[in-house]
Amino acid sequence: MAHAVDGLTDVLDDVLAPVLGTNFKPNNPNEFDPVDNTVVSVTHLLGGALSPALDGLLGAGATNQILGSLNQQVDYLTDALHNGLENLLGDKGIVTGLTGALGLGGVTDQLLGKDGVVGDVLGNVLGDGSLVAGLLGDKGLVGGLLGQDGVVGGLLGDKGVVGGLLGEVLGQ
Fold first, then answer.
1. Of 17, 23, 48, 93, whose Cβ has the fewest other Cβ atoms within 10 Å?
2. Is 160 within 8 Å of 153 (Cβ atoms)?
3. Is the dihedral angle over the CA atoms 48, 49, 52, 54 positive or is it negative?
């Protein structure tokens, strides 16, 4: 079974590499940074709420390692999405060549990049001062629920019901 999975992974890598790219750097700035930042905000809130319980079961720092890996995978995914769009719609992209020949090159030029349509829409929906950012903030609905003083944070925290029980059971 492992051989079949490895073979499939290799085929997918070979097919997608020309479009999505093969080299990814963490925190590579692109128009999808608001998605990365939102995921980091959510995992930060979750980490604060889940850390006392998970670290008690899995060892100190386990929650940060798990959520940090998730953040990195989302960053790689958004970088791949950026690369795919850039390779299709960017200056030398496949679609850009077609639209340029039709005299519509300016359409694709305005889609990508931090100041492009995609970046602007994501920034407005997920960026600072947006509704989503307000919900996820410390004083927002989700932030309030998951924060140390919130319902979930209170239940799972060191002095909460679940955190306290785990502390007693595990001898901490």
1. 23
2. yes
3. negative
- Of 50, 45, 73, 74, the residue nearest 61 (C-alpha): 50
Residue 6 in this model has a pLDDT that exceeds 80 = no
Question: What DSSP character marks residue 143?
Answer: H
Distance CA 155, CA 72 (A): 28
Residue 134 CA, chain-centre distance (Å), reads: 18
Report the number of secondary-structure helices (H) and strands (E) in the chain.
Answer: 10, 0
Q: How far is residue 20's CA from residue 84's CA, in Å, rounded to a whole number?
A: 4
Confidence of residue 36 (pLDDT cuts 50, 70, 90): very high
Whether 37 contacts 123, CB under 8 Å: no
Distance CA 82, CA 115 (A): 14
Closest by Cα among 75, 1, 15, 19 to 43 = 75
Nearest in space to 123 (alpha carbons), one of 29, 14, 52, 53? 29
Which pair of tokens denotes residue 136?
A: 């996820």
When mean pLDDT is compared across 1-5, 18-22, 54-58, the lowest value belongs to 1-5
pTM: 0.65
DSSP helix/strand/coil, 131: helix
